[in-house]
Amino acid sequence: QVQLVQSGAEVKKPGASVKVSCKASGYIFTSYGISWVRQAPGQGLEWMGWISTYNVNTNYAQKFQGRVTMTTDTSTTTAYMELRRLRSDDTAVYYCARAGGWDDAFDIWGQGTMVTVSS
Amino acid sequence: EIVMTQSPATLSASPGERATLSCRASQSVSSNLAWYQQKPGQAPRLLIYGASTRATGIPARFSGSGSGTEFTLTISSLQSEDFAVYYCQQFNDWPPLFGPGTKVDIK
């Protein structure tokens, strides 16, 4: 079946980096892009950006420009999101989601990866 | 950027009742709007896209309507599994922001 499976929970210190993976299966990987969305504890959904798995074009939310890098590996059908210079307010669940383009609805979601930033 | 607002913040209702959730955009998003459902501890699930098209496997009791700046998600008869948080999201303009959500809880 179509699914996105994300890597496990992470605990990081302020200033460190985290890289979350999102393994896709059950569909043609390069036919859909991947968006990343995060959710701080008890808060709403925040769109971080989108990457084309076809041509690796990216589209990042202004808030994360310079701190986030989204990549893909078509050989393993895996997308990655790296966030650098972590702060305590980056503590959140990070989701990947399938989307044809940055302007398409997210029809399949990963299970989420909890990232905790604490000294 | 287009700001999305949702009302009410919390809707208390009983099973079997009709629920009407509103989403408003700060400028027109045409019909480029989606609705998601999120239950505690779970990832969001796509319910509606294109303002009114149900996603695969979504029951017919969920319906979406509206265009431009005003949108509505209607649950015709609440089931126990429908008590959750509902988010709208616009796709007409970058960035594709979410609304703050409406929590539907049991009265």
Q: Could you please describe the fold and organization of this structure?
A:
The complex is a heterodimer of chains A (119) and B (107). Chain A is mainly beta. In chain A, 0% of the residues lie in helices and 49% in strands. Chain A has strands spanning 3-6, 10-12, 18-25, 33-39, 46-51, 58-60, 68-73, 78-83, 92-99, 108-109, 113-117. Chain A is globular, with a radius of gyration of 13 Å. The termini of chain A are far apart. With 107 residues, chain B is mainly beta. In chain B, 0% of the residues lie in helices and 48% in strands. Chain B contains no helices and 10 strands. In chain B, the strands form 2 sheets. Chain B has a 6-stranded mixed sheet, with no helix packed on it. In chain B, strands 1-3-8-7 form a 4-stranded antiparallel sheet, with no helix packed on it. The mean pLDDT of chain B is 96. Chain A binds chain B through residues 37, 44-47, 59, 61-62, 95, 97, 102-107, 109-112, and chain B through 32, 34, 36, 38, 43-46, 49-50, 55-56, 87, 89, 91-92, 94-101.
Brief sketch in words of this structure:
Chain A has 119 residues and is an all-beta fold. Chain A has strands spanning 3-6, 10-12, 18-25, 33-39, 46-51, 58-60, 68-73, 78-83, 92-99, 108-109, 113-117. With 107 residues, chain B is an all-beta fold.
- What is the rounded Rg of chain B? 13 Å
Assign an overall shape of chain A. Answer: globular
| Poorly predicted regions of chain B | none
Cα-atom radius of gyration of chain A: 13 Å
- The helicity of chain B comes to under 10%
Strand content of chain A: over 45%
Mean pLDDT of chain A: 96
Low-confidence stretches of chain A: none
Number of helices of chain A: 0
Instruction: State the share of residues found in helices of chain A, binned by percent.
Output: under 10%
